[in-house]
Design brief:
Layout: H1 2-7, H2 17-30, H3 32-41, H4 46-50, H5 55-69, H6 73-84, H7 88-93, H8 107-116
Amino acid sequence: MRAWIDRSQPGRGEYKDAIDIATAIVWFISSDEIETWLYEEDKDNALLMAADFDPALAATMHLSTQIQAHLSPSVAKELFRQWRQTDIDLLLRNIRSHELPNWPTAKAQQRNLLTAIGQGRL
């Protein structure tokens, strides 16, 4: 996320990190552990409900909380603030989905996942 924020700025124009972000999301949402967590450990189904029962979106929201948990509060706050200002359309245009077969094909779902990764704790 940090690399995309830094390198995709106007004037720099480096977009190679887009596929890395999508890959991290796909790997996380495809793991057996996250499926177990969503359906067995998140007992009140808070993330599933917040994601309108979309397991991929709920998993991405969980990934976002895990990212936040590994950062200091001030670094996490700044990262997520900057992520919310990133150009998601530019990011979407630079994800070479043919290189990532499990990446969703629907642009709306792609946008939802990329937005969710920058939410942090709900």
